[in-house]
Description:
The chain is mostly helical. 79% of the residues lie in helices and 0% in strands. The protein has one domain (2-76).
Amino acid sequence: MFLTLMGTVVIAGIIGYASEKTGWTRNGIIQSIIICVGGAFLFYFVRIMFGISFGSPGLNAVISSIGALIIVPFHWRR
């Protein structure tokens, strides 16, 4: 379980960094990584508590990171 959590953090960090380097988001590298890691943590704990999952833990990390990058910045922009 601990290795799954660490893998989730690493995958989320890579997604956040790649989204900034490709120009998909314009939040800043650190901000995008924090958003992705936060979304991945949230979905990881939801998966543990309620059993909701998209499949493998890696796929869960990718989908939750991308979802957090879509939801969080658009919520605060006007």
